[in-house]
Amino acid sequence: MEIIYSLNEIDTISEQIIDHLQNKIVLFDAKMGAGKTTLIKALLKKLGVNETTSSPTFSIVNEYKKDNGEHFYHFDLYRLNSEEEAYDFGIEEYLFSGNWCFIEWPKKAPNLLPENHNLISIEILSNENRKLTIK
Predict the structure, then answer these.
(1) CATH number of the CATH domain containing 73
(2) Of 77, 79, 84, 107, which is most buried, counting CB atoms within 10 Å of its CB?
């Protein structure tokens, strides 16, 4: 699936993306500044997360909960120096929890990620427009 969108359409396309996802592990591949975190925030909002969301750049993972107790995890692996660091913070427990996991910079831990996942690639077309591909 491919979508070309402007940043002001992100809330609208997030629903289309959720409808197209085949599992709850979602990897995001894009250059710095392409809008990975912005898209993840929109997806979390569409999935019913009401609390304020932010980039987990320094914490590596942020956890969010809905009122019904459902958990969501947002990872930013950019600062990892090795896959062992991901083991150290218990990435496997998150990935195999059955909860939604949104992962930025997945190439930092390729051997740890489950085979069954969705990959969202974002290409910058202009300051306002992006091309999104879901595999």
Answers:
(1) 3.40.50.300
(2) 77
DSSP 63-104: EEE-TT--EEEEEE-TT-SSHHHHHHTTHHHHHTSSSEEEEE
Q: How many domains does the chain contain in total?
A: 1
Q: How many CA atoms lie within 13 A of 2 on its CB side?
A: 4
Q: Is the pLDDT of residue 118 over 90?
A: yes
Q: Looking at residue 56, what is its pLDDT?
A: 87
Helix (H, G, I), strand (E, B) or coil at 6: strand
- Mode of pairing for the β-strands spanning 2-6 and 129-134: antiparallel
Taking the C-alpha atoms of residue 120 and residue 104, their distance in angstroms, rounded to an integer, is 10
Between CA 123 and CA 73 the distance in angstroms is 23
pTM score of the predicted model: 0.94
The enclosing H or E element of 29 equals strand 25-29
pLDDT at 58: 79
Averaged pLDDT of the chain? 94
pLDDT > 90: what percent of the chain? 90
